[in-house]
Amino acid sequence: MTSQVPCYTIINSPDLEVTNEMQLKRDLEKGDTNVKIETLKRVIKLLLNGERYPGLIMTIIRFVLPVQNHTIKKLLLIFWEIVPKTSADGKLLQEMILVCDAYRKDLQHPNEFLRGSTLRFLCKLKEPELLEPLMPAIRACLDHRHSYVRRNAVLAIFTIYKNFDWLVPDGPELIASFLDTQQDMSCKRNAFLMLLHADQERALNYLASCIDQVHTFGDILQLVIVELIYKVCHANPAERSRFIRCIYNLLNSSSNAVRYESAGTLITLSLAPTAIKAAASCYIELVVKESDNNVKLIVLDRLVAMKEHEGMEKVMQDLVMDVLRVLAAPDIEVRRKTLALALDLVYSRNIGEMVLVLKKEVSKTHNVEHEDTGKYRQLLVRTLHTCSIKFPDVAANVIPVLVEFLSDTNELAAADVLIFIREAIQKFPALRALIIEHLIEAFPQIKSSKIHRAAVWILGEYVEGSQILEVIAVIQQTLGEVPMVEAEQRRLAGDQTEEQKQQQGSAGGNAAGSAAEGSGSGNASNKVTSDGTYATQSAYSLAPVAKAEKRPPLRQYLMDGDFFIGAALSATLTKLALRYAELETEARAQNRLTTQVMLIMSSILHLGKSGFPSKPITNDDTDRIFVCLRTLSERTPEAISVFTLYCREALGKMLDAQHDEDQRMLKEKQKATAKVQPDDPVLFAQLSNGRDNQLGENVFESSLNQALAGSKNAQLSDVASPNSKLNKVTQLTGFSDPVYAEAYVNVNQYDIVLDVLIVNQTNDTLQNCTLELATLGDLKLVERPHPVVLAPHDFCNIKANVKVSSTENGIIFGNIVYETALNTNVVVLNTIHIDIMDYIIPASCTDTEFRQMWQDFEWENKVTVNTSFTDLHEYLKHLLKSTNMKCLTPEKALSGQCGFMAANMYAKSIFGENALANLSIEKPVDDPDSKVTGHIRIRAKSQGMALSLGDKISSSQKQSVQAA
Amino acid sequence: MVLIAAAVCTKNGKVILSRQFVEMTKARIEGLLAAFPKLMTAGKQHTYVETDSVRYVYQPMEKLYMLLITTKASNILEDLETLRLFSKVIPEYSHSLDEKEIVENAFNLIFAFDEIVALGYRESVNLAQIKTFVEMDSHEEKVYQAVRQTQERDARQKMREKAKELQRQRMEASKRGGPSLGGTGGRSGGFISDGFGSSGVSSSSGASSANIGITSIDVDTKSKAAATKPASRNALKLGGKSKDVDSFVDQLKNEGEKIANLAPAAPAGSSSAAASASAAAKAAIASDIHKESVHLKIEDKLVVRLGRDGGVQQFENSGLLTLRITDEAYGRILLKLSPNHTQGLQLQTHPNVDKELFKSRTTIGLKNLGKPFPLNTDVGVLKWRFVSQDESAVPLTINCWPSDNGEGGCDVNIEYELEAQQLELQDVAIVIPLPMNVQPSVAEYDGTYNYDLRKHVLQWHIPIIDAANKSGSMEFSCSASIPGDFFPLQVSFVSKTPYAGVVAQDVVQVDSEAAVKYSSESILFVEKYEIV
Where do the Clathrin/coatomer adaptor adaptin-like N-terminal domain residues begin and end (chain A) (predicted)? Predict the structure, then answer.
């Protein structure tokens, strides 16, 4: 098939109008050298774009081939690379014999570069008929003085031997003897490369003869030697022992590339701890020494892969401290990977050291301000968190360091610290007193309301004994003086008076100002607040007036209208008061505390309504504070138990659920690896030839195959049974049409192959029967199918390739044109719809990733739910099935019946595009027959993706509505 | 490491140029390239993307990306090295880094890309080398062109002279009034008809064919057969036998160039047997020598022509000492020769060899002692020549004495004697021409003989002639012949002892003066040895 022709060059020239063949011919024939060069370039570009000029070959042979210009010579090589060398029936064109002679002359040309590039071109020639006469010339080039010619000659012989071994039956022998006499590194490498692929025996002999000098060879040769060793050992594990020494030598090569490769090979050769250690150390060394981030990341990946192996993990555990040296790298990705790796490897013996290092890193981040510092700090906090959960012994050590972060301006790190503290305080009761102590110390320095809110909650929940009073004291300190409204009024008045002193006679601005003016300079006066209530100002407080910025932090939040913290504070205070009541037997002390607390709460309420803050208190917060007040005043046992017990219980449950989820993931992972299919072949150790799967498949070959043929699961349409294969057949014309056509649509990763069956239903011979296709959407026809001739009632298969470049719905339409003896006819074909579902595969990502993407993506498509489904879960299931997406919201969160449901879904296209969807649906609980309503929001990076997915959902809804 | 493709694309992901280094279908590569922009995320500090089948490694360059597609098992360190080289190459061939310029220079870029990667493996090249490779400016091509031009010029020159001479002869002949031009005309008739007829030959093809004609006249009647072969590319090489080309090639050889020596086209006629025999023998001697990493080769050749009644018509011995070093460690060496060579030898060193050193201490070393000798090529370092008219210089005398036996036939006695007793001649072959269709009857002989019916020669082989076995004879009779029939005799032999006595004594390192292990071979062979 023509589509199998390998493609070596792509040139995308924007403005390339198709030129007349005659004009091209004339330029090639008559033009001077420069015109010829330009025309030849043009022809090459046109050919690359799929044009065909069968007539040009002869012109080029006659008028361009004899030109001695170097550029033309090289351009011609490219031309011969791409020009079709065979006629339609697969036979070699007559003209090529003439060209062959030109090749021979070039192979004997005195210009060594011309010889060399011709030889390189011959590597791509696939016609044995052409190669055969050239063989003596190619062989002669092996002895050329110039190494450039020699090394290309070796490559030519290599590929010829690989493709047509009968042309050089003595190829390996020839090259082996060549190898012995060569000194040039490139020649040696290429020769060795050939032996490696063609005759391993000889390659090994050569290696054996020079195994002591391997370390003196150049890097490219060393790389091939490593590859040979890998290959040999892979095919023949018994040989491994011979090479370990050699590989070990190479591990100390001066070239980093060689060291990397050797380390990889070494671990396939031996699983001895020393070997693994050497390889891992080598990798770590590379990561530390190489400045390039790409290298760091990929080598770290190798280390991670090594860790997956059980035996290796043990050995690598001792290297944790070495791994941590990588943290010196500035890139956040590298650090993230390193920390994850170190965390997986660390064990009880070296956790102490690791924590020390991490602490040092943490302190380093304090004075360096960089865009990634914040993220890095967060990362370190998380790592320390996991460390202390894994190894509770170190938690006491870690906590003081982490608490310092609370005062950090960076919310990310502080939030993570609190999450950690929350878990630690719940899990390690022994540490509670310590944690609380540190928390109380750090409390006044906290700079963000979110952090305060969380800290307040932790304090309220876990404070015990005498610390209760301390906590209340610190809260009061950070809240400032109560009642707050009065304090604020005073402050305002103070401000005003101060201002007045400075600027006498200026007209007062606001109502408060004028009131103050009216009441003269007296300190104790009634003031009218903006909502018309009177507020009393205490005459006792003579505190000097502070500027607005100097307010205590908690007060500042309230003044900014953030009353959520007020509500949280109230709940905490309530808890504290209740706890204190349990502890303290003396009723007076109890009541004193309770009133104190209630004063704070009512003061918050008052402030919320006073109009001083920039936003008034919300109703929710008001309600919540009222509940607290009421609980304290009435003390019903139910309410008390909610505050004292259930809160903590809820946290415990959440943490347990999280833990369970983690465990489940871990188990799933293990299960996935241990799974054995019932129809897997059984291996008998006695019968196997020693090359059992312990080495895995040859990574070099498999990765190459994968790269060239697409991934293993790319053949999406073929995974199903043949029955579903039939489902992919689309009928293109009617049964009574003169030409019947149907297509089997085969979807590969990046292309669609249409296998079209065309049947002639008439009694005439159809000449020039052509399948013409056109596409709509992001599809492109790779090349036009060739015309065929159909005998009466004959049939044939035509293949057409369509390139797909993104996940969008596409339509292919077309017609069949044919000529009978009388006239030309056209049959219009039914359209073929390309379904994007073929390209979408379920994928999963973490919550944070999902949110990040949700924020980043530009395109959103909102689809309103219009369905006959009456059950929320049923609808979700249907949606998942019809869109191939995966539901990210855990089953637990969805289970149970309530009137609404929200779920996140995620999928990936095989082109690597992400598609996110959020489902928000509801249904009245009391009406079982009502339909599900709501909407789905789809977000994607590209418009096409968002639109097509939306279309898909709408159409699937339509179908289900119709079905109902 | 397997590099699948190298591409240049714009920041939007549009591919401008891509070159693949392994076989793959167009649909696949286009798909891979189309997927790249979608996978790439900005704001990362690393420049690679992995999918489940390939890895993309890229480098931003102003408005462009240089992109490599590799397998996932590929060695990232190598790939980055390659990528760096690629991105250095691009500004070299494209003045500004934008789409238009790249398209304009697409082909040069492709040529350069090809030099960096071969079959998916990185070549060890640097930017300067790539430039040289792409420029294709070949010294050898220039030499070749120069040789060709000299040949053409010479040919024209000779043709003109010959034409003049012929004209003169014709004038003379016409003066004498008799058409006595037959002999000359017969010998070079072909030449006259096309060379002389159009005296202003200037086109290259005309010149080369004229060239053949002239050399054939010039050399000898024997090479006439060869020269009348159809004019192919080789014709020029045949012409190369003329003297100045020979010296030119020698010169090149001395400079370290390796000139493909097209095997001397076997001269037709009776001489071929001897020549090919000697060539074979020479090859046999040369083949089985153990070579060290410093290898000396001493080639001595003899051209001898003796009169049948004694007397030296021509005696010439010329030789060449070549050095071949295959190990870098021994690049810088000194070669000491033994000072006692034959008297009257004209010695000539290669221009790069220190002449003073050689004169004073008969030691060969480069003028610039810091530089090593070229590796892996035969470097000619010393040439010598010895010409004599003295009969005592002839190594082997042959006395062929045919005498009329009175029945229309001849009895022939041949006798040889080794004069230079230090030599040990091997594979001596004496070829005696015989008249047509006459079977010789050999009565007495040393060694072996055989009669070649087709070529009408009697070949007499003596495997070895040395001081202990220095003479021998043969006696045979032929019917229907005259004494003149048995000439010219051709002799061929080879010897491992050089005639001129140039022998290496010692090879030492320049710096340490430590002796270096070396191997040497010496060959004495006969280019022409005949008794006329």
Answer: 18-557
